[in-house]
Structure formats: structure tokens, C-alpha cells
Automatic annotation (TrEMBL):
Similarity comment text for this entry: Belongs to the glycosyltransferase 39 family.
Catalytic reaction equation(s): a di-trans,poly-cis-dolichyl beta-D-mannosyl phosphate + L-threonyl-[protein] = 3-O-(alpha-D-mannosyl)-L-threonyl-[protein] + a di-trans,poly-cis-dolichyl phosphate + H(+); a di-trans,poly-cis-dolichyl beta-D-mannosyl phosphate + L-seryl-[protein] = 3-O-(alpha-D-mannosyl)-L-seryl-[protein] + a di-trans,poly-cis-dolichyl phosphate + H(+)
Taxonomic source organism: Casuarius casuarius (Southern cassowary)
Protein name per UniProt: Protein O-mannosyl-transferase 1
Transmembrane feature ranges: 68-88, 100-120, 126-142, 154-174, 186-203, 208-226, 246-267, 578-599, 614-637, 644-665, 677-697
Localization annotation: Endoplasmic reticulum membrane
Entry membrane topology: Multi-pass membrane protein
GO molecular function: dolichyl-phosphate-mannose-protein mannosyltransferase activity
Enzyme's top EC category: transferase
Pathway annotation from the record: Protein modification; protein glycosylation
Keywords assigned by UniProt, alphabetized: Endoplasmic reticulum, Glycosyltransferase, Membrane, Repeat, Transferase, Transmembrane, Transmembrane helix
Sequence ranges assigned to domain MIR in this UniProt record: 296-359, 370-427
Amino acid sequence: MLGFLKNPVVVTAEINMNLLALTVMGLISRLRGLSYPRAVVFDEVYYGQFVSLYMKRIFFVDDSGPPFGHMLLALGGYLGGFDGNFLWNRIGAEYSMNVPVWSLRLLPALAGALCVPLAYQILVEMHFSHCAALGAALLILLENSLITQSRFMLLESILIFFILLAVLSYLKFYNSQSYSSFSGSWWFWLLLTGVACSCAFGVKYMGLFTYMLLLVIAGLHFWHMIGDQNLSNVSLMCHFLARGLALIIIPVTMYLSFFYVHLALLYRSGPHDQIMTSAFQASLEGGLARITQGQPLEVAYGSQITLRNVLGKPMQCWLHSHRNTYPIRYENGRGSSHQQQVTCYPFKDVNNWWIVKDPGMQQLVVSNPPRPVRHGQIVQLVHGITTRYLNTHDVAAPLSPHSQEVSCYIDYNISMPAQNLWRVEIVNRESDTDVWKTILSEVRFVHVNTSAVLKVSGFIGASLPEWGYRQLEVVGEKLSKGYHQSMVWNVEEHRYGKSQEQKEREVELHSPTQMDISKNLSFMAKFAELQWKILTLKNEDTEHKYSSSALDWITMDTNIAYWLHPTSGAQIHLIGNVLTWASANVATLVYMCLSLWYLVRRRRRIYDIPEDAWQLWVSAGGICVGGWAVNYLPFFLMEKTLFLYHYLPALTFQILLIPIVLQHLSNHLCRSLLPKSMFSALIVAWFSSVYLVYCTFSPVTYGEPSLSVAELKDLRWKDSWNILIRKR
């Protein structure tokens, strides 16, 4: 019974020493001296702010992309015990002792280090030689720009890691399909492909391009499977459903989960939540939630309300009036009604309060029981402090002469009667009998007499002159079939009016509300709003000293100074290995020219290389050239400030192509021993030169040792490079 103990238990493991050595070298190149410099380096000043907000659980919106990458950076801060207390206001600022610099930079550095073995495995899975795979990994290892970008609290190395992981996972899945469909390893690599893709575009939307490329490749592979007569219809359907689950459903689900965790972590109000709707703001702890907690839900006749414009551009603002009137005559000679001004004011103020009045009754208080206002009903809006009625008429607005002036009516005993009836239209209603609700309802006010709609002027608002205190213009716009968010308003603060006397009512308008009604948004509603803000919110793009065009990247005609030591000549630059960049461009050009040559010759029924070599050549180009194209060409269509680091994902695919082209040339163009030997010698000499260039630029890659003025000038290989020379 115990006979099995007679022999020792033996565990056998295969270790790929190439892979192990590359991983170790990658870790050393990215992790050594990671805390140096102990100062804010370039975009750390940008991402660090978000890390601090995560630590303090304060809500923010970043229009640069989804939250997953920010959460990974924040994870580094959390593991290092960062409390979020640091003022991220200046590049080069010294970190205080409470900032765990090594932990904050750890995850990007690990991601950059793991890109080295991933490059090796990708070429192996594409069925190229281990020598070619080793060459690709070493080129990634010795690429100065990738090293620089991965050693700081930045996102590009994390993005590239997930992109390469997605490519490798798909290749392993595809290769396992021929012998073990639906096995454990088959499912593992297929599911990992979907997970890696979702992580890639969860870090930055640039990852979406590689995801789409893999979807196209997977679609082409499945199209070929359809023609396989050995597969039954049931088997094909199972393959289709498995791919749909792993490559579509899982990425979408994970993408939603990133936002779910993001919103769960950031539950406190902060400066960024002001661009969100009132309903979103009310769901956050503090801020508007503190103000609006306990408000009545249903707007009734006699309600006292503030009306916030839904657009929120160029800033959030509330419908406002004050005792000042429009000038009798404007500077351009046009006349006005000289009525009381109505504006959109970007700050909370007692003059933002309005009373919803029933046109058929005189009372300005809520009856018992309250009579809620429904979609399509007519109301009058009475300014709470001045008790004048919101009015519009056929008089040109001050800044928008094609729109109607909006005012609070003053009776001057002239032939200009009041026109103060407004129809309430609930834009997001579920039925035509919906009740107007606090925060939740988005409404338009349509003028009964002229059919004009109350709106903030222009697409992004127009500020009035000094006589209007630079507040935003409000106009009456003729009703059209569609509507813009500038025409839509929601009730933000709300109370049931109880005081009929004006003096008592003014006191009431200054007091907080205390009724308890919950207005929590669902996750999907918050996700949809936040996603829309991320996609549409555009910060004003200003010309940056180190911004560049996409054309500058191919030949690396630009660089970025990341950090400069305050006293010595030590500095860090984003500069690539010049020889590697040039070789990558040559490899891409050679691949395209050879592919065109082969296609033309094959059209003439001339086959220069075997069919299996041709299929290998095409599939490698689909991944490497395709990966370069989808990660580079879209930048020509983007209207945003561009930097050299945006090119790094595309460059990574180009670098993978170099050993592929070299192996192809060696195998199919160097047919005898002598040319092969000469070609191998040239490759060794070229690779030695790549290493020498890496060593030459290492001082500005790692920031040490400090270089003299003469040495810095020697590094300026291109006149367009901005190497910082300190004046003495």
C-alpha cells in the first residue's frame, strides 16, 4: 500500500533560459535607480493629481481616456502607503517624504520590463526562429525611448504591455486550435486575449486600435474555418459563440467594470463634478448632495427652484436675474426693451431662485396637498427676489440679434404687454403625463406667444458687456425640430414655498431645505453620463513647447525634455535609439516593397518563395505592419496636442518587424553560404552599433551621470533636438 514511497517524487520542469535571461535584463534596465530623480518628471505632474484624488476618494473627470490606467497608478500609491497629500503643480518639484516614489513608478516599470520577454514570445509564436525572437527582444530592451517612458508614473508602458499581451495571447490561442480546440489552454488563451484587449483600451483609447486589428484578424481566421468541410455546423457555431464571448462580451463587461470600480472609489464631491449634471452631483458625498439632501422630488405650483443649464459650457450656470435693466440703446445703436436683465450666472446666488406660478392663481405658495406640474402644462416663472415675471418678446437680444431678448417684465405703461407664459416640456419623459421632478427631469421652456425656447446664447455661451457683469446671455430661440443642450434645464435646488409675504419669502429663499427624498442614480446612468463627458469634454489645446506633428515622429525630428537637475547638467529626455528607429523605417519600407513585388509576381504565376513562407510573411505583416499602421495613422485625423510618446505603441510593432525582415532576407535572398555569412556579419555589426547608440544616450535616458556642456552638445545629433544647455 505504501509502495509508492520506495521511489522519490520527481518534478520535471522546462525552463527557457532565453526567456529567463531576457526577463531579468528587462527588470534590471527598467527598475534600477527607479526612485531617481526624486522629483516630478514631465507628465507625472498630470497623472499625480489623479492619484492624489484616488487616495482621497474625490471624484474627477479626465478627458484623456478611461480610468483603468489611472487606477493602476493609484494602486502603486496605495501599496506604498501614499496619503494623497502632495501639490502636483510644477515639473521638477522635489517630492516630500510622504510620497512613495518607488511604488508609484513600480507598475509602469514592471510593465515596460515584461514587454521584453513578450516580444520574444510573439516572434516564436509567429513561427520565426529563436534567433529572430531574441533579436526583437533585445531591440526592445535597448530602446532608449521605451526605457525612459517606463521608468516614470506614465501610462504608455502599461498600454504597450497589454497590447503585446493581447497579441501573444491570440497567437497562442490560434496555434493551439489545430490540435486542442476547446481544451483548457485553448480557452485560457482565448479569454486572456479578450481580457488583455479590454485592459489595453481601458488604459488609453489608443488600445482600441489594436483591439480592432485583432478582431479583424480573428474574423479572417474564422472565415477560413467556415470553408473547412471537416467542421460541422454545430462545431462552427460553438467556435463563433466562443469568440463572441471572449472577444466582445468579456471586453465590454470588463470595460464597464473599470468604471464601476472607478465610481465606487470616487464617492466624494470635488472640483471636477461641477461639469456633471445635477443628478450626478447629488449622488456624490458632500458638495451638491449636502445642499440638495431632503429636497421635495416633485415640482409643484408655488415651488421655489433654481434652474441649471444642462450644457455646462463654457461653464455651469443658473438662470439668474437682478434689478439692473438692459441699456436703452446698445453700443451698436440697436435699442432694447429696457426691461430687467435675465442672464445665466456661473455661481450660486440668491438671485438664482424662481417661483413656479399657476397663471390662473395669484398665490406664490404650495397648496396642501401640492399640485405637481406635469409635462405640457403652462407656468409663469416669478423671480424670487424682485417678484418680476420671466418674459420674452419680439425684441432682439443684446448679443444675438436673430434671437429674442429674455427679461423680467417691468410695466412702463407703454404698448408692450407682458408675455410671460411658458410651456414645460420634459425632454427625458417616459410618458406625456410625467411629473416635473427635481434634478431628474430635463426640461425646456417654450414661450406660449412666440414658440421661442429659453436657452443660453450660442453654442458655448456669450458673455454680456460690463453692464451685464460679464454674465452669460440668455435668449429666446425659435423652436426647431431638434434641440441642443443649451435649451435644456433642470431643477437643482428646490423647496416648497410657504410664505406669501415678500419679506418673509426672501428670508425663506436664504434658508436650507430639510425634507428627505433620495435621488440616487443607477450605475448605468452614471456610466453613460461620465463616458459622454470623457468623449466630448475638450480642454483648450494650447501649443506646448514639446508638442509635435505625427510626421516628426517617423524620423524622430523631435524630443521631449522630461527633467533637468536644478544645479548640475543631469537631465532626462525622451529620445529613442536613432539606429533602431531608422532600421524600423527601413524594415517597414522593405516589407512593403517586397510584398508588392511578390504580389505582382504571383499574379503572373511566378512564385519566388514557398507557399508556407508566403503565408508566414503575410501573417507577420498583418500583425506588425498592421499594428504600426493602426497605432500611427489615426493621429493624422486627431485634433489634439500630440507628443513623441504617442508614437511608442506603433514603434513597438515596427521594431518587431526588423528581425522578421532580416530573417526573410537571410533565408530567401542569401541562397549560398558566402552571402549568408556576410549578411550575418553585417547583422552583428549593426546590432553592435545599436548597443553603442543605446550606451551613448543612456545618460539622458536614466538621468545619470551628469554630463558636461561639451558632452551635451555632442548628443545633439539633430538640429531640431532641444538638449538643455545650462547657461553659466
